[in-house]
Design a protein that fits this description.
Layout lengths: L5 E6 L5 H13 L6 E6 L10 E6 L2 E10 L2 E7 L3 E7 H7 L2 H4 L9 H18 L17 E4 L5 E7 L8
Antiparallel strand pairs: 1-5, 2-3, 3-4, 4-5, 6-8, 7-8
Helix pairs in contact: 2-4
């Protein structure tokens, strides 16, 4: 039997990140939400108010990621390190600066293409565990593993996943 490397869920407007992760894990793992704990941890400063999300069910760590843009929240659970990102095409177009995003040879032509490049790179950086502490220009998309996801109109989303055994927080 082939194992799907990840499970993605979109959540209702107003759902908190913590609640979304816990409901997602309960449904995907077949457990009750009361045995699921989740939170965030910044590896730079140790804060639990921001940083990489974590999740444990019955004390066992699982690989997770989440992203919010506008009213949209998406979460992912995986069997290996994972990153997910959703972006508003209009928001990326307003703040676009190619010198901060593109590696040599990357040249997206449209606002949607630029938003996709941004979303793919953010997903890769989340999967690596560095987030935006690593400059986007250091990510060469041709060298990475990512997949575009279906997203609401006006938005783009991408996921990046790593090799099993790379460690959940």
């Amino acid at each position: 039997m082939t194992r799907v490397p990840y499970d993605v869920r979109w959540h209702a407007t107003g759902t908190t990140s913590k609640r979304a992760l816990e409901l997602h894990a309960a449904a995907h793992l077949g457990v009750t939400a009361d045995v699921v704990n989740s939170g965030r941890l910044c590896l730079q400063c140790g804060s639990s108010r921001h940083g990489r999300p974590w999740l444990r069910a019955y004390g066992v760590a699982h690989h997770v990621s989440l992203s919010r843009s506008g009213a949209h929240l998406v979460t992912v659970l995986a069997y290996a390190p994972v990153g997910i990102d959703v972006e508003s095409v209009a928001d990326v177009a307003r703040r676009w600066d190619a010198s901060l995003v593109l590696a040599p040879g990357e040249d997206p032509a449209t606002d949607e293409d630029r938003a996709r490049a941004w979303s793919r790179k953010e997903a890769v950086l989340k999967q690596r565990g560095t987030g935006l502490a690593t400059p986007m220009i250091e990510v060469v998309l041709a060298d990475e593993q990512w997949h575009d996801l279906d997203a609401p109109d006006g938005y783009v989303a991408a996921i990046s996943w790593g090799a099993p055994g790379a460690g959940a927080p």
